[in-house]
Amino acid sequence: MHFHKYEKIWLTIGISALVLFLTIVGVSAFAGGHAPPSAHETLDPQKVNETAPFNNPGLFKVGEKKYELVMISEAFAFTPGNVKIPKGATVTFIVTSKDVVHGFAIPHTNVNMMITPGHVNKITHTFNEVGEYLILCNEYCGIGHQAMSARIEVVEQ
């Protein structure tokens, strides 16, 4: 089969780009030790209420303007449901599920996780604007999914 000179050039460029892309992904995934966030910490989903820190969910101050919010997702609620934090606080969300896959998203922020039973998920966000933020389940989790939400109220100090 005969290829035109320009076809050979573009095929070479395309294949080279593909090989470069796959090499970068491979090195990043394997040599760099990257893994999905939920693969780092696991627990028994049947014993969530007995396992620290989920045996005492809530908001905890861990430093100057630094907080940890330990939450449990289950059909069809987040525990705790409402939280107040000061403006400028950096919050690390530590979340797990007791039953099925749930979503954890805060609209208009970069917070978006898939919460799977048996895995501990963490994400950090700084709240610089006063207001009310809604935490939504964005993964269909059953018949009451549409009512699954929690609120974060950011207040002036």
UniProtKB/TrEMBL annotation:
- Record's protein name: Cytochrome aa3 subunit 2
* UniProt-listed CDD domains: ba3_CcO_II_C
Transmembrane region(s):
9-31
Has the keyword Mitochondrion been applied to this entry? no
What role does it play?
A: Subunits I and II form the functional core of the enzyme complex. Electrons originating in cytochrome c are transferred via heme a and Cu(A) to the binuclear center formed by heme a3 and Cu(B).
Q: What is its main location?
A: other
Per the record, what are the reactions this protein catalyses? 4 Fe(II)-[cytochrome c] + O2 + 8 H(+)(in) = 4 Fe(III)-[cytochrome c] + 2 H2O + 4 H(+)(out)
Residue ranges constituting the Cytochrome oxidase subunit II copper A binding domain according to the UniProt record: 55-157
Q: Does the keyword Transport apply?
A: no
Q: Annotated Gene Ontology MF terms?
A: copper ion binding; cytochrome-c oxidase activity
Keywords tagged on the record: Copper, Membrane, Metal-binding, Transmembrane, Transmembrane helix
Q: Which PROSITE patterns match?
A: COX2 (PS00078), COX2_CUA (PS50857)
One Pfam family assigned to this protein is COX2
Q: Where in the cell is it found?
A: Cell envelope
Q: Which GO cellular component does the record give, naming just one?
A: membrane
Native organism: Lottiidibacillus patelloidae
